[in-house]
Amino acid sequence: MNIRQLAKELGLSTSTVSRALNGYLDVNAQTRLRVQEAAHTLGYRPDAGARRLVRGSTDAIGIVYSAAVENLGNPQFLDMAGGLAERLEQQQFDLLLAVASNDQELRIYDRLFRGGRVDAVVIPNTHLQDSRVDYLLEKKYPFLGYGRTENCSDYSWFDFDNERGSVLAVEHLLKLGHTAIAYVHASLALNFSFQRHQGFMAALNAAGLTCPPSYQVGPAADRRSGLEAVTKLLALENPPTAIVVDNNLGGVGVLRGLLAAGIQVGKDISIVVHGEIPVDTLLDCADVTTVTQPTAYETGVKMADMVLRLLQAPNEGPYQMLKQPELVLGMTTGPCP
Quick check: 318 pLDDT over 90? Predict the structure, then answer.
């Protein structure tokens, strides 16, 4: 079935059907859904080559990530990429992943766009000051930030209220009687880590408390560095009674270190972790108190919708979405001993 036959079947013009299939917002949502459902039911498949020529696009979205950040070691990144790819595929877009060292990233972005390989890119792990954002804005290349920067008003991004997440964690521990609360964090050059640290310190200050430098350990963004961080904290003359960890893989390392030391998590010491603990950690205390956001898969789907909208109606942007966190109680927090 070609597009003319599909249009005849629906009693619509070929132009309307084409724009509905491509998700254009000047076709109302009900008509878009009707056309997309009919195309699926009747087995319509657009000619990819002709579609690209007509639209002047590549039908691909790119992600360039640094191998140094080790995103592929984090199941949350893979789940996000899965949701992103599946939603893009529904609109006949591909997801292209490229790996780069830190000094190669800008050159790769340039090759992707100049070579006609992608229509837009998603930037993961945004920094407080991010040369990638500056470069793409200067070149006027379409992109969506997976996170914000210090100045984020001029571009599209999807992010979480990171400061609020840390406030929730600290307020929970304060209610349990904890005042000696340590903080294990990723690099504070990363915007999410900087914001979570800001929220943590603000919540303590609001309660008339401080966090001494010896209680702040980082960067710890993977299992090994999380283990090393908690080893340092346990070696202190006055160890903390509670720890907040700003990322899930660092949290796994902290929990492993406590269990290896024979410490009863939730009784001897309390732990709150930002992000979901991967199901393959094989921890004895899998029921962890966490600061959670929408699932990584849902995040990927939402970002796909945003980047598609950015391409379809660029003048209506920038598109920005800030999701609120929730505190999910587990067995790793309890009254201060």
Answer: yes
The helix, strand and coil proportions of the chain, stated in percent and rounded to the nearest 5, come to 45, 15, 35
Bridge partners, residue 123, by sequence: 145
pLDDT at 101 exceeding the cut of 70: yes
Cα 197 off chain centre by: 17
pLDDT confidence of residue 140: 94
Q: What is the pLDDT of residue 7?
A: 87
Give CA–CA dist 250/219, Å, rounded.
9
pLDDT of 280 over the 80 cut:
no
Q: Is 120 helix (H, G, I), strand (E, B) or coil?
A: strand
Alpha-carbon span 326 to 141, nearest angstrom: 34
Structure tokens at 310: 């950015």
Calculate the CA 241 to chain-centre distance: 30
Element (H, E) at 146: strand 143-146
| In the predicted structure, residue 311 carries a pLDDT above the cut 70 | yes
Name the more confident of 162 and 27: 162
CB of 271 within 8 A of CB of 243?
A: yes
Q: Which domains are present in the chain?
A: 3-46 (1.10.260), 60-160+295-323 (3.40.50.2300), 162-294 (3.40.50.2300)
Q: CA triplet 95, 17, 118: central angle to 5 degrees? A: 20
Q: How many CB atoms lie within 10 A of CB 294?
A: 16
Side chain identity, residue 53: L
Element (H, E) at 273: strand 270-274
Cis amide linkage into residue 278, ω under 30° from 0 = no
Query: What CA–CA distance (Å, rounded) separates 132 from 120?
Result: 13
Alpha-carbon torsion (318, 294, 20, 95), positive or negative = positive
> Token pair for residue 224?
């090994």
The strand pairing partners of 144, in sequence order, are 122, 156
Residue 327 CA to residue 321 CA, distance in Å, equals 20
pLDDT category, 53, cuts 50, 70, 90? very low
- Looking at residue 103, its pLDDT comes to 73
Q: How far is CA 192 from CA 57, 176, 265, 270, 308, in A?
A: 32, 26, 26, 23, 24
